[in-house]
Request: fold
Amino acid sequence: MAAFPESDCPMTHEAKLEILEAMCRLCETRPFSRLSVVDIARETGIGRSSFYYHFSDRNAAVQWLSRSAFAKGIDEIGRTLTWFEGHYATTCVLIHFKPLLIAAAQDGSYSGAEMSYLRHRKANLCETLELRGAELTDELLFDIEALAASEQHMTSAYVRGDFGDMSPRAFCELLVGIVPEALRQATEL
Reply:
């Protein structure tokens, strides 16, 4: 696996993924709001204290998953990955955890995810452009704002299944196709 948050040692990272896998399995049969730490721990084969060692609550687990998916893919666009490679890496993680992400999105207690994504994505793109020495013009800032909103909307719809049986590859090609030309040129590897 590629880059994930540096604060995670490999064993901690693997333990977190096991917890998320268990949450994903549980969300195939029940809503996110009915996931208890006891159920998650039992499904994972760990104690409750182990869950709390890794995550403060189930929302924190989903937030970590999202940040990890971004770190593995879209956060690296224009740094170490192309637009397609970045979107593909992130999309594959999101699709793998589809039942969990859909259940979390349908739960009212997880409503801040969209705004968090938008802030993170805009900041990441601005930072990437600055690292590449590009001037942050009003046009580029507008492109970043519009692209972040479009990516968020389209990715949510894709994970929900609104694009039918479109493959992850075809979906990522679609995402790459909406990148404004000035932004694409400023971030090309």
